[in-house]
Amino acid sequence: MSAPASAPVTRSDRHRPAWQSLDSAQLLLIAVAGMLIIASVTQVGAVGIEDSRTAILFGALIAVGELLRMIMPGNREVAPIASAGSLGYALLLRVGSEPATHSAFQAVTVTACGTFIGALPHIAVGRMPALDAMARRILSPALVAFIFRPLGHSSLRHHWPLLITVMALIVMLSCVAEVVAAATIRAEAVRTRFGIALGDEIRAKLPLCASSGATGMLIAVSTFVMGPVALLVFTAPILVTQVAFRRFAGIRATNLQTVRALSRVTEVGGYVETGHSRRVSALAVAMGRELGMTEEALLELEYAALMHDIGQLSLRDPIPGGATVLASPSEQRRIADLGAGVITKTGVLPEVAEIVRRQSEPYRTAEGSAPPLASRVIKVANAYDDLVGASSDRDRSAAVLERLRGDSAAEYDPTVVEALGHVVDRRR
Amino acid sequence: MRGLPLAAWAYVCTVVVLAASAIGLSSLDGIDWATLAVLALLSVICESAPALLNSENARVSLSYSAGLASVVLLGPVGAAIVGASAMVAWRREMGLEKRLFNGAQFAVSGYLAGVVYQMAGGTTGKPTNGSFPGIITPYLCAVVTYVAVNLALIGVVLVLGKMAPVWGFRWRPIGNLAAGQLSYGVFGLLIAAPWGLIGPFSAVLVLLPMLLARWAFQQTSDQQQAHAATIAALCQAVETKDYYTRGHSERVSRGSALIAEAIGMRPERVGAIRYAGMLHDVGKLGVPTKVLQKAGDLTEEEFAAIQLHPMRGLEIVRDIGFLDEALAGIMHHHERMDGTGYPMGLAGAEIPVFARVISVADAFDSMTSTRSYRAARSLEEGIAELRRSAGGHFDPDLVEAFIAAIESQGWDQPDPVAPPEGEDIETTQQDHDDPSAPLRVAGEGVR
What we know:
The structure holds two protein chains of two kinds.
Chain A: H1 24-47, H2 52-67, E1 70-72, E2 76-78, H3 80-91, E3 94-95, E4 98-99, H4 104-124, H5 131-152, H6 160-190, H7 194-226, H8 229-233, H9 235-262, H10 265-268, H11 276-290, H12 295-306, H13 329-345, H14 350-357, H15 373-388, H16 394-407, H17 414-427
Antiparallel strand pairs in A: 1-2, 3-4
Chain B: H1 6-24, H2 33-48, E1 51-52, E2 59-60, H3 63-84, H4 96-119, H5 136-160, H6 171-192, H7 195-198, H8 201-239, H9 248-262, H10 267-279, H11 289-292, H12 300-307, H13 309-317, H14 324-331, H15 353-367, H16 379-389, H17 396-409, E3 440-441, E4 445-446
Antiparallel strand pairs in B: 1-2, 3-4
């Protein structure tokens, strides 16, 4: 009953040296970026820097953007202003009346220098950048630079409509490349299918990619008309975007934090064992991932799992030990209904209420359809935690798994029980 | 707008006629019709989806950017036509006269801004290499004119239509609105600057980040509401157990915010105290039900269990990051000014201000609600009791601030509750929040 909450087992790799916790795709990406930077710096060192004033201006913009980097939901590090600046420099054709003739190597050098300078203050206060995200922030504009710099000096530059179309296409290509790279790394890191990770990544990245791309192109074009002032002026729209997204990320994080904290009311009230809600939600999310749920679905699942026992608050007396798996089916259903009632009252998250409402239903129902996947996941995760609790005894967990397998097909969804099996195996 | 006063009708007609004559009486020669068509289309699209700039309900439309871009690119008449195009915006809820007025006022604003732009020395047409920085001053004059004319025209119709008072406008929202409009107006120059090179592309490139920002702001405000609703729902869930205390958290939250506003706290702190008031009794869940419902004297142990509830509450909400200052309020809301409260026995100014505020609202709501052992007291009795305990129990300044706030803004006293019939009723027989009927502890008299 009073066992301490189990240590987070899934992140046991936290204490290893940094390079060991990197997956192969991450390592590859970082290595490529590193080599490209070394090559570019060497090349620029050999032939000298062209138009150093503009280079410094763009470098400064990139550094500021990097300084203002932020974390989006799903622990994604982004720096839209820095990305816009480096894209702008890669696409730059003319500053006022002077043509900009810098090479792609110089574009990479400026991007890399700006990025490192902007990262320094963060490192100084102990916030290490996510190396793979940083590598992507350098590689993506580099791709643009290497395709566009040679084109920009051809006769194409006199046909504006064509030129801007080509710019847009190249920027989109770099966006796609970045999203694919990010999805590959993510699929490896959170053990999900590539297709799912790609979808998540597109939803999460597309708005910011589009903003950075649009602003980068604007900066490149407007420096024609306005000279270097354009840099400053055209950062305004994306600054608004950044503020908006930062707020959004902030409130989303707060929301989750609040629900996580408040899910403990059932524990403090003595309705369930200490740590039950959190363990169930961690288990449910791991199983959901195993089952190929998208990030959005996982968030709903996490909310529902955290609040799955909230209906118990309306019970007169706590169920002994808090284990709903031992309560009668009608009692279980009543708790689920009461819980769903509470969540419905919030007026938001209607899906979460539905998940909670149907969590007690058996997999094979005589009438109607099977409950939603998330409900089935919570049912299994809850049963497992009720029977195993915070114990890390292998025999016990194996016995419980056997018991759930025995009940599957009628009570529990067999695929979900198998997913639990995988998750539990991995934790051992 | 149905049933508008005659004056308002006359005014709307005047503005429409003004707009029509501004367009009709001017020469349309030399207008770049292709640019005009694109800008008008843009204006219609933007006007169809007004942006929610921030949590204040200042709705600013991105069509300002289009309107001001047309001031530079097309001149007064062109700007007037682009403004008038807002008439056909796809907004179902708008009636015909509202559409007409909306288009007309944009047209008049655009026309006047165009005139001011030219008077200040701006050249109409696509900006070129030599335009900067000379274009900036005339452009800023145009933006200010546009926004000022726009606000004035709308303000007058609101007053005449009796939708706003003649005097006593609330300036703060108007200021926010104007700031939003000015900044959107400035984006018009960003659209105009590269127009000569890339044409309509520039509008797309400028507005894309803005539209995405608008989307994100919308999502943020949804999430904020979700957040508040989640906390409220959970507090209600905690309260459902006791029939008599339903709605208590909500009212304490409101009362605490009243006091906080009255003593001039910043809006962020008022927001935080709102949450703290809502969550102040969440720890009561940790007190066994039989103790809360005990009719007779409490034993020492039972009293200790009740005294623990602020700490239990703290335990639950400690991990919620945004609550920093509010945590102290939750933990110390049962301290008394004379130092005889719990859990720490702090006195006077040692007690965090959040806690002192919550304690006043908490006690007041408890006294003015029905309890199983007594009927609700009237507001006057509650106020008198607060005054009596000021100094010993409550912070006198906060008591006075609260009383003044109730007197000016009112207080929703809960309806008298009758216990449900049939079931054997469970309810608290003593209320730890009620200063007028302190808890009875065996052997020690009252607490």
